[in-house]
Design brief:
It is built from 28 helices and 28 strands. The protein is α/β, with parallel strands linked by helices.
């Protein structure tokens, strides 16, 4: 069988950093996405089995996902295996790859996807499916599993989307159902054995099909039920202790400390709360150890206590107090991203706000107590309003409230309840802060009590969203909503069957990418795909009979069908179901009470360190001047990215930083004039306020350099003498070397010399500058001290003054004096060789 087209990219050439980065990266929006030079990235030269961990979304999203970091750590701890990473290229980068016929490659070694043994996709969201196909195509891998032969990578997938693998069976060789910590090692072992025994691809798939929790469409079909894999005890797994630290700012720029996995609350709409049962907590002592090692390995200033419901963690108060007592001095903040309304209490908030007020998000989900009983949310409107009052009373200035529309049994009174509850929350907040209402659309996910329900239509979504928007009009009460078209697509693919493979591929071939990004969603192409492939969306969004076979029935998530049907019945009667941790077993089927069962943390295992209330002696603060260079790949980092990387390195060192006061303390650090993206620099300065350091400064410099990403290097560190000017006042000028392209011939050099001669002879030279949205003229002649053309080495030596009124930049020289066009300027390497101080 054939797809009708060949892979878009075919190449046997191993691409070098120079090929990939130097020619192209200045032409993309965020070069830091594609460098792969992060702190803690692992680069193994030899391994029997090579994994490519592929995340079908942007670098910022993928690097925020804890699961990817866990698998990266586990695989690289296996002596005979290595793991590298790859993320979906943004459209500007895809255009470069396709235009240059460059295969999509890993970050660590720049090896094309097709050269790996295993390419594993983490599927967290149905709207990333077209990105997955795009990555396969760019990597030179046939999209259809039937077209892959010996020598092609094994394409596997894991994550919550795999609990209904049917829509992707055409493309994926094997699905991992459930927790991945144990099974990924078994897959590596299986693949190594297959290599050693020279097994064919078909024989390898047969061996993989024998692993618990692995679904292989070519072997199993739908004839065998695949039960998910469970990690019985999280205390046996402490990965990752050295997370890869992103170069660019990510969605969650912090360490994620998974305190528990699973949930027993039983919200009837929540797929995660069902498929990740049973509930398993980590012990506080292990969490304290993990936090310490992760902070030391990363230099982050925030810890996120991660769980489906962080407030349910049985030792939360003790853990939070222990963490705050230990890290308050270093200004490390805590975030609890998933708190239930009734679990937030005043002592907990007092601890969290000791360092920094992180954001608060509450999820009442429905507007009335009646509807919350139907979905088994287990809290009331009064609970929500009391919590909002506590949050603002403690000094927070904003709260986000998540609601869901389109739930089974929803009436207009329930929608009116969302409006009334939002206004009540606003009245409770009074003038203390902002309330934001966020609306999402209910999708009846597989393996939930609501899996048989219908999903409301696009017209119904628009009508209900407009109803709430019209009713909520206030400066201090914002409303945001999820794109109805995205919910439509999510519903189709989460509830779909094998017939959606052609629909998905057609949309991809037409150009659909990043469908979860509203500014890139091409809904017209999806509508066309439905028409051309004769897909009727209503077939997948409709209500299902309880006696019909569902596309995902052969996947066993551990929850029994009887339990789901009973919960559906209770929902229609408005009955709630108790939490099994406090009210006894509810017979959902997740536990075998031998190996698989709920695990609560050991209470009393960790006592919070006693607070020292004695007044501390006044600290002796000093100011240090650091000199650093940025070369090679680091030149593609922005000033903010460089500042963040150096700040994290300082936090990892033994230097104790000084911080600003207030609700959001920051290290007292000031930088000199920033170099633009693409420019190298051999001498940059920053001033740092810190506690007096009495040890060897050379040793401190080595500590900091060991924590910096490739291309950044601390070259000098000294104590500032009393009275020395701050760096911003001390800067007086810069010297640059501008390396012309190799193709620059003698005639071009003569032309450059003539332009330089005319400029130096002029008394003034005005160039256009955009200032506050207006184009104004700026005379740069007075700032330029010298320009020397070195014909032999094809470079220009450029020296400028710097003051509060401005400077002349190498970009000004190239664009306005030498008249280089954009491609010429982009291919010209600029190096700041010296920063002149007074």
């Amino acid at each position: 069988m054939t797809t009708g087209t060949e892979p878009a990219v075919e190449s046997n050439t191993k691409m070098t950093n120079k090929n990939i980065h130097h020619e192209f990266l200045l032409g993309v929006e965020k070069p830091g996405r594609y460098l792969g030079t992060e702190v803690n990235a692992v680069r193994k030269r030899q391994a029997d089995v090579s994994f490519l961990l592929a995340f079908p979304d942007t670098y910022e999203v993928g690097m925020s996902h804890l699961g990817l970091q866990i698998l990266y750590s586990i695989i690289n701890d296996i002596p005979y295996a290595r793991a590298e990473r790859c993320f979906a290229p943004w459209p500007d980068r895809e255009r470069q790859l396709r235009g240059g016929k460059i295969p999509l490659a890993s970050l660590e070694s720049q090896m094309p996807l097709k050269d790996f043994d295993i390419v594993g996709f983490s599927l967290q969201y149905e709207l990333s499916y077209t990105n997955m196909l795009n990555m396969l195509d760019l990597g030179g891998i046939p999209l259809w599993r039937d077209e892959r032969r010996d020598g092609h990578p094994l394409v596997i997938a894991g994550g919550p989307c795999c609990f209904n693998p049917a829509p992707l069976c055409r493309f994926i060789d094997a699905f991992v159902i459930g927790d991945g910590e144990e099974v990924v090692g078994e897959i590596a072992s299986c693949f190594r054995d297959a290599k050693n025994n020279a097994l064919t691809r078909g024989e390898l798939l047969l061996e993989l099909s024998k692993l618990d929790g692995v679904y292989v469409p070519a072997v199993h079909g739908k004839d065998r039920t695949i039960r998910k894999r469970n990690v019985p005890d999280l205390n046996r797994w402490n990965h990752p202790l050295k997370p890869v630290v992103p170069l660019t700012q990510t969605i969650h720029d912090r360490i994620s400390l998974e305190i528990a996995r699973g949930c027993t609350r039983g919200c009837r709409f929540c797929q995660a709360g069902m498929i990740w049962r049973p509930y398993r907590e980590r012990n506080p002592s292990l969490l304290m150890e993990m936090a310490d090692r992760m902070l030391q390995a990363t230099g982050y200033d925030e810890i996120s206590l991660l769980s489906l419901s962080s407030g349910d963690y049985s030792c939360l108060g003790t853990l939070v107090m222990s963490l705050m007592n230990k890290y308050h001095r270093q200004k490390v903040a805590l975030a609890l991203p998933s708190l239930r309304v009734e679990s937030l209490n005043t002592p907990l908030m007092e601890e969290i706000k000791r360092t920094r007020k992180t954001s608060f998000t509450l999820a009442p989900e429905a507007g009335t107590d009646r509807m919350r009983a139907m979905i088994n949310k287990g809290n009331t409107s009064d609970d929500l309003l009391a919590t909002v009052d506590k949050i603002f009373a403690a000094g927070w200035q904003s709260v986000k409230l998540y609601f869901m529309i389109g739930l089974p049994g929803e009436t207009w009174e329930d929608l009116e309840g969302i409006v009334e509850l939002a206004h009540e929350a606003r009245r409770v907040a009074s003038r203390r802060g902002l309330i934001t209402v966020s609306l999402s659309t209910f999708v009846p996910k597989p393996h939930t009590p609501f899996q048989w329900e219908r999903q409301i239509s696009l017209a119904e979504i628009d009508e209900r969203q407009e109803f709430i928007r019209r009713k909520i009009r206030s400066r201090c009460l914002g409303v945001k909503w999820h794109d109805a078209r995205m919910s439509w697509l999510e519903g189709i693919f989460s509830r779909g069957d094998e017939s959606l493979g052609g629909f998905l591929e057609y949309a991809f071939r037409r150009g659909c990418r990043f469908d979860g990004w509203s500014d890139l969603l091409r809904f017209d192409l999806w509508e066309d795909a439905a028409s051309q492939t004769q897909i009727n969306p209503e077939d997948f969004l409709r209500e299902r009979r309880t006696d019909e076979t569902l596309p995902w029935d052969y996947i066993d998530c551990g929850i029994s069908r009887e339990f789901l049907l009973r919960e559906r019945s209770h929902a229609r009667l408005g009955r709630t179901t108790a939490d099994c941790r406090s009210e006894g077993c509810q017979h959902c089927g997740a536990c075998d009470f031998h190996k698989i069962q709920n695990i609560l943390a050991s209470r009393g295992e960790t006592s919070p360190p006693a607070s020292n209330n004695r007044p501390a002696p006044a600290p002796l603060w000093k100011k240090y001047r650091l000199t650093f260079s940025k070369t090679g790949e680091a030149r593609f980092l922005s000033h903010l990215e460089i500042a963040a990387a150096i700040t994290r390195a300082l936090r990892r060192s033994s230097l104790e930083l000084a911080f600003s006061e207030g609700f959001h303390p920051h290290p007292k650090i000031s930088f000199g004039n920033a170099t633009p993206v693409g420019m190298e620099s051999l001498q940059e300065f920053m001033d740092v306020s810190a506690l007096a350091y009495w040890s060897d400064l050379n040793e401190l410099k080595m500590q900091i350099n060991a924590a910096l990403p490739q291309g950044l290097c601390l070259t000098d560190l000294r104590l500032l003498a009393s009275g020395e000017k701050p760096i911003a006042e001390a800067l007086k000028g810069f010297e640059y070397e501008i390396f012309l392209p190799e193709s620059t011939d003698s005639a071009k050099l003569s032309e450059i010399e003539e332009s330089v001669k005319e400029f130096l002879a002029a008394s003034s030279f005005e160039i256009p500058k955009m200032i506050k949205g207006k184009t104004l003229g700026k005379d740069i002649r007075a700032f330029v001290q010298s320009i020397v053309v070195d014909r032999e080495n094809k470079k220009i030596l450029f020296r400028t003054l710097h003051s509060q009124t401005g400077t002349a930049r190498p970009a000004d020289l190239l664009a306005h004096i030498l008249k280089f066009d954009a491609p010429e300027a982009q291919s010209t390497l600029v190096v700041r060789t010296r920063s002149i101080l007074s």
